[in-house]
Design brief:
Blueprint lengths: L1 H26 L15 E2 L5 E6 L8 E6 L19 E6 L8 E10 L11 E5 L17 E3 L3 E6 L9 E6 L18 E6 L4 E11 L11 E6 L5 E6 L6 E7 L5 E2 L5 E2 L6 E3 L10 E5 L6 E10 L10 E6 L2 E6 L11 E8 L5 E8 L13
Parallel strand pairs: 1-6, 7-12
Antiparallel strand pairs: 2-4, 3-5, 5-6, 8-10, 9-11, 11-12, 13-18, 13-20, 14-15, 14-19, 16-17, 17-18, 19-22, 20-21, 22-23
This protein binds calcium ion (2 copies).
Protein backbone atom coordinates (compact mmCIF):
# COMPACT_ATOMS: atom_id res chain seq x y z
CA UNK A 1 0.00 0.00 0.00
CA UNK A 2 2.67 2.46 1.09
CA UNK A 3 4.73 2.13 -2.11
CA UNK A 4 1.68 3.29 -4.19
CA UNK A 5 0.98 6.30 -1.94
CA UNK A 6 3.24 8.92 -3.58
CA UNK A 7 2.32 8.08 -7.23
CA UNK A 8 -1.37 8.17 -6.30
CA UNK A 9 -0.97 11.57 -4.62
CA UNK A 10 0.86 12.83 -7.72
CA UNK A 11 -1.81 11.52 -10.06
CA UNK A 12 -4.60 13.02 -7.94
CA UNK A 13 -2.81 16.38 -7.67
CA UNK A 14 -2.16 16.48 -11.42
CA UNK A 15 -5.78 15.63 -12.16
CA UNK A 16 -6.89 18.34 -9.74
CA UNK A 17 -4.65 20.98 -11.37
CA UNK A 18 -5.65 19.95 -14.91
CA UNK A 19 -9.26 19.91 -13.81
CA UNK A 20 -9.03 23.40 -12.38
CA UNK A 21 -7.19 24.64 -15.46
CA UNK A 22 -9.79 23.00 -17.66
CA UNK A 23 -12.59 24.62 -15.68
CA UNK A 24 -10.84 27.97 -15.82
CA UNK A 25 -10.32 27.60 -19.55
CA UNK A 26 -13.88 26.60 -20.08
CA UNK A 27 -15.20 29.52 -18.07
CA UNK A 28 -13.21 32.15 -20.02
CA UNK A 29 -15.39 32.86 -23.06
CA UNK A 30 -12.60 35.02 -24.51
CA UNK A 31 -9.89 32.43 -23.90
CA UNK A 32 -9.59 31.41 -27.56
CA UNK A 33 -10.67 34.72 -29.04
CA UNK A 34 -8.28 36.52 -31.40
CA UNK A 35 -9.60 40.05 -32.17
CA UNK A 36 -9.40 41.24 -35.80
CA UNK A 37 -6.16 42.97 -36.78
CA UNK A 38 -6.23 46.70 -35.90
CA UNK A 39 -6.87 49.22 -38.66
CA UNK A 40 -4.86 52.38 -39.12
CA UNK A 41 -1.97 53.86 -41.08
CA UNK A 42 1.00 51.65 -41.91
CA UNK A 43 3.49 54.48 -42.55
CA UNK A 44 4.29 57.53 -40.50
CA UNK A 45 6.90 59.70 -38.86
CA UNK A 46 8.07 60.20 -35.31
CA UNK A 47 6.21 62.54 -32.92
CA UNK A 48 3.00 62.66 -34.95
CA UNK A 49 -0.17 61.25 -33.43
CA UNK A 50 -1.96 58.56 -35.43
CA UNK A 51 -5.32 56.89 -34.88
CA UNK A 52 -5.66 53.12 -34.68
CA UNK A 53 -8.92 51.30 -34.42
CA UNK A 54 -9.88 47.99 -32.87
CA UNK A 55 -13.23 46.25 -33.18
CA UNK A 56 -13.81 43.16 -31.06
CA UNK A 57 -16.88 41.07 -30.40
CA UNK A 58 -17.52 39.22 -27.17
CA UNK A 59 -18.95 35.71 -27.82
CA UNK A 60 -21.64 36.32 -25.19
CA UNK A 61 -22.25 39.93 -26.27
CA UNK A 62 -20.77 41.33 -23.10
CA UNK A 63 -19.08 44.71 -22.91
CA UNK A 64 -15.30 44.73 -23.22
CA UNK A 65 -12.26 46.87 -22.49
CA UNK A 66 -9.44 47.33 -24.99
CA UNK A 67 -5.70 47.51 -24.54
CA UNK A 68 -3.25 48.33 -27.34
CA UNK A 69 0.36 47.29 -27.67
CA UNK A 70 2.56 49.83 -29.45
CA UNK A 71 5.67 47.75 -29.97
CA UNK A 72 8.47 50.02 -28.74
CA UNK A 73 9.29 47.50 -25.97
CA UNK A 74 7.66 44.52 -24.27
CA UNK A 75 5.71 46.75 -21.87
CA UNK A 76 4.68 49.38 -24.39
CA UNK A 77 0.95 49.09 -23.83
CA UNK A 78 -1.90 51.54 -23.42
CA UNK A 79 -4.18 51.87 -20.43
CA UNK A 80 -7.32 49.75 -20.59
CA UNK A 81 -10.26 51.55 -22.12
CA UNK A 82 -13.58 51.91 -20.37
CA UNK A 83 -16.12 49.13 -20.94
CA UNK A 84 -17.52 49.37 -24.45
CA UNK A 85 -20.47 47.49 -25.93
CA UNK A 86 -19.37 44.38 -27.82
CA UNK A 87 -18.73 45.14 -31.49
CA UNK A 88 -18.05 48.84 -30.93
CA UNK A 89 -14.96 50.24 -32.63
CA UNK A 90 -12.49 51.90 -30.33
CA UNK A 91 -9.89 54.40 -31.50
CA UNK A 92 -6.57 54.73 -29.71
CA UNK A 93 -4.16 57.54 -30.53
CA UNK A 94 -0.42 57.13 -30.38
CA UNK A 95 2.85 58.72 -31.40
CA UNK A 96 6.35 57.29 -31.29
CA UNK A 97 9.37 59.13 -29.97
CA UNK A 98 12.46 59.35 -32.11
CA UNK A 99 14.36 56.07 -31.95
CA UNK A 100 16.54 53.85 -34.10
CA UNK A 101 13.60 51.44 -34.38
CA UNK A 102 11.55 52.03 -37.50
CA UNK A 103 9.05 49.16 -37.40
CA UNK A 104 6.42 48.73 -34.71
CA UNK A 105 3.96 45.81 -34.46
CA UNK A 106 0.62 47.16 -33.23
CA UNK A 107 -1.91 44.80 -31.74
CA UNK A 108 -4.64 44.80 -29.13
CA UNK A 109 -6.57 42.54 -26.83
CA UNK A 110 -9.77 42.81 -24.86
CA UNK A 111 -11.16 41.73 -21.53
CA UNK A 112 -14.66 41.64 -20.11
CA UNK A 113 -16.00 42.86 -16.79
CA UNK A 114 -14.94 39.60 -15.13
CA UNK A 115 -11.36 40.19 -16.34
CA UNK A 116 -11.59 37.31 -18.80
CA UNK A 117 -8.81 38.06 -21.25
CA UNK A 118 -8.69 37.48 -25.01
CA UNK A 119 -5.59 36.54 -26.98
CA UNK A 120 -3.71 39.32 -28.79
CA UNK A 121 -4.87 40.27 -32.28
CA UNK A 122 -2.54 39.82 -35.22
CA UNK A 123 -0.18 42.77 -35.64
CA UNK A 124 -0.44 45.74 -37.93
CA UNK A 125 3.12 46.67 -38.84
CA UNK A 126 3.69 50.43 -38.62
CA UNK A 127 6.78 51.66 -40.44
CA UNK A 128 8.50 54.95 -39.66
CA UNK A 129 9.61 56.82 -42.78
CA UNK A 130 12.86 58.50 -41.80
CA UNK A 131 13.57 60.56 -44.92
CA UNK A 132 10.20 62.27 -45.23
CA UNK A 133 10.06 65.98 -46.07
CA UNK A 134 7.10 68.16 -45.15
CA UNK A 135 5.11 69.82 -47.95
CA UNK A 136 6.49 73.14 -49.15
CA UNK A 137 4.99 76.31 -47.72
CA UNK A 138 1.71 76.72 -49.65
CA UNK A 139 1.18 79.62 -52.03
CA UNK A 140 -0.78 82.55 -50.70
CA UNK A 141 -4.45 81.44 -50.77
CA UNK A 142 -6.24 82.43 -53.95
CA UNK A 143 -9.64 84.03 -53.64
CA UNK A 144 -11.58 87.28 -53.56
CA UNK A 145 -10.07 90.19 -51.66
CA UNK A 146 -13.41 91.76 -50.87
CA UNK A 147 -16.91 90.65 -50.22
CA UNK A 148 -20.02 91.11 -48.17
CA UNK A 149 -21.22 89.49 -44.97
CA UNK A 150 -23.21 86.23 -44.91
CA UNK A 151 -22.00 85.22 -48.36
CA UNK A 152 -19.97 82.11 -49.06
CA UNK A 153 -16.67 82.63 -50.87
CA UNK A 154 -14.34 79.96 -52.21
CA UNK A 155 -10.58 80.01 -51.57
CA UNK A 156 -7.95 77.85 -53.18
CA UNK A 157 -4.75 76.37 -51.81
CA UNK A 158 -1.81 74.84 -53.60
CA UNK A 159 1.55 73.34 -52.77
CA UNK A 160 3.70 70.33 -53.52
CA UNK A 161 5.32 67.65 -51.42
CA UNK A 162 9.00 66.88 -52.09
CA UNK A 163 8.24 63.16 -51.80
CA UNK A 164 5.15 63.39 -53.98
CA UNK A 165 2.93 62.52 -51.03
CA UNK A 166 -0.73 63.41 -51.12
CA UNK A 167 -1.61 66.55 -49.23
CA UNK A 168 -4.48 67.85 -47.13
CA UNK A 169 -4.99 71.52 -46.31
CA UNK A 170 -6.54 73.64 -43.64
CA UNK A 171 -7.40 77.32 -43.68
CA UNK A 172 -7.18 79.82 -40.85
CA UNK A 173 -9.89 82.30 -41.78
CA UNK A 174 -8.67 85.21 -39.69
CA UNK A 175 -11.95 85.45 -37.78
CA UNK A 176 -10.87 82.98 -35.10
CA UNK A 177 -12.07 79.98 -37.08
CA UNK A 178 -9.71 77.33 -38.46
CA UNK A 179 -11.12 74.76 -40.86
CA UNK A 180 -10.93 71.00 -40.59
CA UNK A 181 -8.34 69.30 -42.77
CA UNK A 182 -9.52 68.74 -46.34
CA UNK A 183 -9.52 65.38 -48.01
CA UNK A 184 -6.22 64.37 -49.58
CA UNK A 185 -5.15 65.97 -52.84
CA UNK A 186 -2.37 64.91 -55.15
CA UNK A 187 0.80 66.93 -54.73
CA UNK A 188 0.44 70.00 -56.97
CA UNK A 189 -3.35 69.81 -57.25
CA UNK A 190 -5.45 72.74 -56.12
CA UNK A 191 -7.67 72.33 -53.09
CA UNK A 192 -10.58 74.61 -52.37
CA UNK A 193 -12.78 75.43 -49.44
CA UNK A 194 -15.54 77.94 -48.81
CA UNK A 195 -16.09 80.28 -45.92
CA UNK A 196 -18.72 82.78 -44.84
CA UNK A 197 -17.98 85.84 -42.73
CA UNK A 198 -20.70 87.12 -40.49
CA UNK A 199 -19.09 90.40 -39.43
CA UNK A 200 -17.62 93.21 -41.50
CA UNK A 201 -13.89 93.83 -41.27
CA UNK A 202 -10.62 92.93 -42.92
CA UNK A 203 -9.53 89.33 -42.39
CA UNK A 204 -6.26 87.65 -43.24
CA UNK A 205 -6.52 84.11 -44.56
CA UNK A 206 -3.66 81.64 -44.51
CA UNK A 207 -3.34 77.98 -45.33
CA UNK A 208 -1.26 75.07 -44.05
CA UNK A 209 -0.51 71.75 -45.71
CA UNK A 210 0.00 68.28 -44.25
CA UNK A 211 1.35 65.29 -46.14
CA UNK A 212 -0.12 61.81 -45.85
CA UNK A 213 2.38 60.98 -43.11
CA UNK A 214 1.24 63.94 -41.04
CA UNK A 215 4.23 66.25 -41.62
CA UNK A 216 3.13 69.89 -41.46
CA UNK A 217 4.21 72.71 -43.76
CA UNK A 218 4.72 76.29 -42.71
CA UNK A 219 1.66 78.52 -42.87
CA UNK A 220 1.37 80.46 -46.14
CA UNK A 221 1.50 84.20 -46.52
CA UNK A 222 -1.86 85.81 -45.84
CA UNK A 223 -4.58 86.81 -48.24
CA UNK A 224 -6.53 89.82 -46.98
CA UNK A 225 -10.24 90.04 -47.58
CA UNK A 226 -12.33 93.06 -46.73
CA UNK A 227 -15.86 92.15 -45.78
CA UNK A 228 -18.42 94.90 -45.75
CA UNK A 229 -21.97 94.87 -44.48
CA UNK A 230 -23.19 96.33 -47.75
CA UNK A 231 -21.88 96.62 -51.29
CA UNK A 232 -19.98 99.85 -51.93
CA UNK A 233 -19.71 101.67 -55.27
CA UNK A 234 -15.97 100.92 -55.47
CA UNK A 235 -13.55 98.67 -53.65
CA UNK A 236 -10.03 98.73 -55.09
CA UNK A 237 -7.71 95.92 -54.00
CA UNK A 238 -3.95 96.15 -54.46
CA UNK A 239 -1.82 93.00 -54.11
CA UNK A 240 1.74 92.33 -55.18
CA UNK A 241 4.62 89.89 -54.71
CA UNK A 242 7.44 89.76 -52.23
CA UNK A 243 9.40 92.63 -53.82
CA UNK A 244 9.33 95.57 -53.53
CA UNK A 245 8.29 95.06 -49.94
CA UNK A 246 6.28 98.29 -49.70
CA UNK A 247 3.86 99.48 -52.33
CA UNK A 248 1.18 101.98 -51.30
CA UNK A 249 -2.32 102.61 -52.61
CA UNK A 250 -3.24 106.29 -53.05
CA UNK A 251 -6.51 107.95 -53.97
CA UNK A 252 -7.20 111.63 -54.57
CA UNK A 253 -10.84 112.62 -54.29
CA UNK A 254 -12.72 115.49 -56.01
CA UNK A 255 -12.91 117.36 -52.68
CA UNK A 256 -9.07 117.48 -52.48
CA UNK A 257 -8.64 114.65 -50.00
CA UNK A 258 -5.62 112.44 -50.35
CA UNK A 259 -6.35 108.98 -48.94
CA UNK A 260 -3.20 106.93 -48.30
CA UNK A 261 -1.27 105.29 -45.44
CA UNK A 262 -0.81 108.55 -43.49
CA UNK A 263 -4.40 109.66 -44.00
CA UNK A 264 -6.69 106.67 -44.16
CA UNK A 265 -9.94 108.61 -44.72
CA UNK A 266 -13.42 107.56 -43.59
CA UNK A 267 -16.33 105.65 -45.09
CA UNK A 268 -19.27 107.01 -43.10
CA UNK A 269 -18.55 110.70 -43.65
CA UNK A 270 -16.45 112.92 -45.94
CA UNK A 271 -14.44 111.92 -47.91
CA UNK A 272 -16.43 108.64 -48.09
CA UNK A 273 -13.19 107.02 -49.14
CA UNK A 274 -10.90 104.91 -46.95
CA UNK A 275 -7.73 102.79 -46.97
CA UNK A 276 -7.91 99.70 -44.73
CA UNK A 277 -4.27 98.78 -44.03
CA UNK A 278 -0.73 99.70 -45.00
CA UNK A 279 1.19 96.55 -45.80
CA UNK A 280 4.95 97.11 -45.69
CA UNK A 281 6.24 93.54 -45.99
CA UNK A 282 5.06 92.43 -49.41
CA UNK A 283 1.92 90.90 -50.92
CA UNK A 284 -0.75 93.27 -49.63
CA UNK A 285 -3.60 93.58 -49.99
CA UNK A 286 -4.36 97.23 -49.46
CA UNK A 287 -7.98 98.15 -50.09
CA UNK A 288 -9.31 101.58 -50.90
CA UNK A 289 -13.09 101.71 -50.68
CA UNK A 290 -15.28 104.51 -51.94
CA UNK A 291 -18.57 104.33 -50.08
CA UNK A 292 -20.22 107.28 -51.79
CA UNK A 293 -19.20 109.07 -55.00
CA UNK A 294 -18.99 112.86 -55.32
CA UNK A 295 -18.92 114.74 -58.63
CA UNK A 296 -15.42 115.30 -59.98
CA UNK A 297 -12.41 113.14 -60.66
CA UNK A 298 -10.99 110.42 -58.41
CA UNK A 299 -7.41 109.45 -59.18
CA UNK A 300 -5.97 106.11 -58.11
CA UNK A 301 -2.26 105.33 -58.11
CA UNK A 302 0.22 102.86 -56.63
CA UNK A 303 3.47 104.20 -55.23
CA UNK A 304 6.70 102.27 -54.88
CA UNK A 305 7.63 103.46 -51.40
CA UNK A 306 10.58 101.22 -50.49
CA UNK A 307 12.28 97.93 -51.21
CA UNK A 308 14.18 96.50 -54.14
CA UNK A 309 12.84 95.89 -57.63
CA UNK A 310 10.23 98.03 -59.41
CA UNK A 311 6.49 98.13 -59.81
CA UNK A 312 6.85 96.58 -63.27
CA UNK A 313 8.32 93.42 -61.77
CA UNK A 314 6.35 93.53 -58.52
CA UNK A 315 3.58 91.17 -59.74
CA UNK A 316 1.21 93.91 -58.64
CA UNK A 317 -2.48 93.49 -59.43
CA UNK A 318 -5.18 96.11 -58.93
CA UNK A 319 -8.69 94.74 -58.87
CA UNK A 320 -11.64 97.08 -59.02
CA UNK A 321 -14.93 95.89 -57.60
CA UNK A 322 -17.94 97.87 -58.76
CA UNK A 323 -20.89 97.30 -56.42
CA UNK A 324 -19.14 94.20 -55.16
CA UNK A 325 -18.48 92.71 -58.60
CA UNK A 326 -14.97 92.44 -60.04
CA UNK A 327 -15.12 94.81 -63.01
CA UNK A 328 -11.51 95.69 -63.85
CA UNK A 329 -8.15 94.04 -63.31
CA UNK A 330 -4.97 96.03 -63.93
CA UNK A 331 -1.38 94.83 -64.08
CA UNK A 332 1.61 97.19 -64.41
CA UNK A 333 2.77 98.22 -67.90
CA UNK A 334 5.88 96.32 -68.98
CA UNK A 335 7.68 99.52 -69.94
CA UNK A 336 10.58 101.43 -68.38
CA UNK A 337 9.70 101.84 -64.75
CA UNK A 338 11.67 104.26 -62.59
CA UNK A 339 12.43 103.15 -59.04
CA UNK A 340 10.10 104.67 -56.42
CA UNK A 341 7.72 106.02 -59.08
CA UNK A 342 3.93 106.13 -59.18
CA UNK A 343 1.86 103.78 -61.27
CA UNK A 344 -1.08 106.01 -62.12
CA UNK A 345 -3.73 103.38 -62.75
CA UNK A 346 -7.08 105.06 -63.48
CA UNK A 347 -9.52 107.90 -62.93
CA UNK A 348 -13.14 107.61 -61.88
CA UNK A 349 -15.71 110.19 -62.84
CA UNK A 350 -17.60 110.70 -59.62
CA UNK A 351 -20.69 112.01 -61.41
CA UNK A 352 -21.17 108.96 -63.61
CA UNK A 353 -19.09 106.28 -61.91
CA UNK A 354 -17.25 105.69 -65.20
CA UNK A 355 -13.70 104.45 -64.88
CA UNK A 356 -11.02 105.57 -67.34
CA UNK A 357 -7.74 103.61 -67.44
CA UNK A 358 -4.53 105.70 -67.39
CA UNK A 359 -1.93 103.02 -66.69
CA UNK A 360 1.35 104.98 -66.88
CA UNK A 361 4.42 105.45 -64.69
CA UNK A 362 5.13 108.91 -63.39
CA UNK A 363 7.83 110.17 -61.07
CA UNK A 364 5.49 112.85 -59.70
CA UNK A 365 2.31 112.11 -57.80
CA UNK A 366 -0.90 112.36 -59.86
CA UNK A 367 -2.42 114.57 -57.14
CA UNK A 368 -1.23 117.00 -54.48
CA UNK A 369 0.78 115.54 -51.61
CA UNK A 370 1.50 118.78 -49.76
CA UNK A 371 -0.22 120.11 -46.65
CA UNK A 372 -2.96 121.85 -48.63
CA UNK A 373 -4.81 118.57 -48.89
CA UNK A 374 -7.61 117.88 -46.46
CA UNK A 375 -7.45 115.22 -43.80
CA1 LIG B 1 6.38 64.19 -47.58
CA1 LIG C 1 2.20 99.80 -48.15
Amino acid sequence: MHKYFIPVILILTSALILGFWGCFRLTNPLGDYVPPVPSGPTRGIFNVIYDFKGTATHPDGESIRYQFFWGANANDTSEWSTLMPSGTSVTFRHSWQVSSVTQYPIKYRVKDKDNNLSLWSDSLIFTIVTNNAAPLKPQIPFGPSSGVINTSYTFKALTTDPNGDSISYRFAWGDGDTSEWTNKYRSGDTASMSHTYTNSGTYFIKVQAKDELGALSEWSEELGITITSSVFPFTIALTWGQHPRDLDAHCWTPQAYHVYYANRGRLSTTPYCSLDVDDVTGYGPEHITISQLSPGTYKYAVHHYSGDSTIATSQAVVKVYRNGILTYTFTPPQTTCPTYCYWYVFNIDGATGNLTPVNIYTTTAPGPTDKSIKK
